[in-house]
Amino acid sequence: MSVIELKNINKYFGTGISRVHVLKNVNFSAERGQLILVIGPSGSGKSTFLTIAGGLQTPSSGEVIVENQSVDQLSKKQRDKLRLNHVGFVLQSYSLVPYLKVKEQLAFVRKVKPKGNLNDTELKDLLAQLGIEDLVNKFPGELSGGQTQRVAIARALYANPEIVLADEPTAALDSARVVEVGKLFKELADTRQKAVVVVTHDVRLMEFADKVYEIMDGKLQLKQPSKSAQ
């Protein structure tokens, strides 16, 4: 059963002659246990697709269903609660709090969401897997771009969400780190039965994916079907 579904999604920006049709009748679904890539060039609509899927912005038309709940029928408070408890975001902006150390970034997650997070052992393993266990006392301004990206991934996964939505999570990483992140996302899907959706132009992640979609000029199509169906 799908944990996230987009039905006939359209998104427009601007009005009149400046109106741009960013997403065009997009249909998509993801189930637990799947790592799905949505690939496409810059400006193709990838980030808009992801933020609509996670309820961070609303479509111009169509329906988004998360955990069997139609997002557009929820109040703002209900949407916020749904995202907090079920959706983990890894966004290009990283959104780390500049005056908090890495360990404090994680503690902040625990303050906002006291229950259902990874336990201490699982968190320690996650930090080690991402190669950032020695960075917990660093501020974001002391980190490289790749380190910042890995901290943002750890913060999103610490909350132990059922759905992980990642926007270009490997953009600042070298090939060795790309493999580690690919393995981590695959393990989240296979072993922990998460639904992991990654929008990216990084073809190095394709070997880990169960499905690959391509988005071009706002249109989404299946490029590589589920491996179990091949």
Gist of the model:
The chain is of the alpha/beta class.
Question: How would you characterize the overall build of this protein?
Answer:
The chain is an alpha/beta fold and 230 residues long. It has a single domain (2-225), classed as Rossmann fold, CATH 3.40.50.300. Helices cover 31% and strands 28% of the residues. The chain has six helices and ten strands. The chain has helices spanning 46-53, 76-86, 102-112, 120-130, 145-158, 175-190; strands spanning 2-13, 20-31, 34-39, 61-66, 69-70, 87-90, 163-167, 195-200, 211-216, 219-224. Helix 3 (102-112) packs parallel to helix 5 and helix 4 (120-130) runs antiparallel to helix 5 (145-158). The longest helix has 16 residues, at 175-190. The model has no long low-confidence stretch (mean pLDDT 91). This is Putative hemin import ATP-binding protein HrtA.
